[in-house]
Amino acid sequence: MQQFVVLKKENFDAFISSLAQTQKVVAPVSRGYNNFSFQEVISGKEISLKYIPTILPPKKYFLPPRETLTAYNKRENALNAILEYEKMVIFGVHTCDLAGIQCLNMVFVDKPKDINYIIRKNKIAIIGLECNDYCDEYASCCVVENHLPNGGYDLFFTDLGDAFIVHINTMLGEELVSKAAVFKPADAKTLKSLESLRQMKRSIFKDEVNVKHENLKILFDSAFESKVWEDLNKRCVACGNCTNVCPTCYCFDIIDEPNLDLNTGVRYRNWDSCQNEPFAKVAGNENFRKERSQRQRHRYMRKFKYPVDKYSRYFCTGCGRCSRTCMAKIKLKETINDLAKETK
Amino acid sequence: MKRIELKESEYIVAPAKILEARMMTAQEKYFKIALEGGVSLDHEPGQFVMVSLLGIGEAPISISSSPTKRSYFELVVRNAGRVTNALHKMEAGDSLGIRGPFGRGFPVQILEGNDLLFVAGGLGVVPLRSLINFVIDNRRDFGKVHILLGCKKPADLLFANEINDWGKRLDVNFSCTVDKADPDWKGNIGLITSLIPGVNLNPKRTFAIVVGPPIMYKFVLLEILKKEIPEKQIYVSLERHMKCGIGKCGHCQIAQYYCCKDGPVFSYDQIKGNKEAL
Predict the structure, then answer these.
(1) ipTM associated with this complex
(2) How far is A328 from chain B (nearest CA, A)?
(3) Digit-coded pLDDT (tens) for A15-41
(4) Taking each helix axis from N to C terminus, what angle separates A228-235 and A292-304, rounded to the nearest 10 degrees?
(5) Which of A26, A220, A282, B241 pairs as cysteine with A305 (C-beta 3.0–4.6 A)?
(6) CATH number of the domain at B108-237, please?
């Protein structure tokens, strides 16, 4: 198997169009100034190749905002497990979002396995797209080491000006390439250009916070009692935007929805947020994370501490969505720097 | 979008039938339930189930009976939310769904051969009863057994007849207290913490098992530590909101732990200093 192939820019549209003829293709498209979202496309012309992280991450295809888990019939006292899925290709996934999908995989494959998630993920082909430069000032992909590709894709596109160099990572990727018949083997010169691009990226991408990668966890190990959370308490409006747009937030609620016949219905899960006030409330109204400071702290700990202990991996991908979307201008980089300042 | 039926899923429920139902107090209702087809729930003391009512939802409920009773299990449900409210309207013969049992229960194998100090406050007796009755059913396999119970007022006392029997047993040291007595009350009056200093125990070979409302733990644990029972020999069962029961949905998270999967039973040693736990 040839590991690297080349796709000339003039053939890009043909590649996407041919893909879209056989299956659903989703890719980042422009949704007004500086806003992008993954949407179904039928041609390459619709795709924004230079985009900042989409409003919602590709998580929405792996863990849909609303997903039916079971369908019931009260009269027959029957409840059947349901799976909803769609075969598709996601084109243009940045390295931060590839990392996000890898995090979700860890959680849902962890026992007891989530069958719905696993089957759905196996129907999705992933084509990554390299960021040659920072998206904007909110990104912090370097400190979490997601500015370079770390797997998790079938194909990976890197823009080299007049052509893409494409890394084939899986047999599925190889299949997509050979079916399209517009890819050429990569010559030594193109491979060299990829190498020098990566070299250049090393000088562009620098730790975005005043804490080194390996020290982030140590910082959060002792951050529980920090005054920084009190500051967030005053600013956070508990809207839940940050968790909705996070590529690794996966908390959900389970809700029954009867049909109009009041006999049949479904039980579905939908995205929930630990930032919402009743999230950790139990019967009798005891609330185990009553304060916004506690809930914000919990969100940060779930990115930089708890998953590191459990899965040896930061669950912050550095995409910057939480900071970009926050109405109260709570910025992840700022929070980390404030925590670091405190420990000095 | 394709929609198919799955044969296996964590969200499938086992059909079950209510064998007996009765109000225990003004707020708590007792249910004796059996899974359809004579299947045993096969739980460990301290585990919980998700009770599923079609069209209404699911709620996590502690199992109150000992697994030594294999043909049925018992739940005691406080009317506190949408699902429990609907449960309270159900009677013997009604059908419901069960998922589980879930979670880590009490470490029965570790407790065997040792002396046990049970401390239950309020509704805490409901999950603790699964272990107390397990111990009583296997009484020879355990050392001394002390049971301390506390609740707000005599009318709140759950399983009054059974508790009366515990009090009569020669192989159990039993004390009970209420915060506020009525004229007929003959037992102790005061907080449950007041019962602990008087217990005569050997801390080296005693395991303390404490279950109660959040506010109770701090004070009871303090008294138990004064007895010099090692931290590793103290167990608590924590209550949290649970939606999935399988360590995914995030509602029950206590810092790094999922209460539904890593708990609800924790050793004190495990959660000591964990500010989200107690």
Answers:
(1) 0.93
(2) 24
(3) 999 999 999 999 999 999 999 999 999
(4) 120
(5) A220
(6) 3.40.50.80
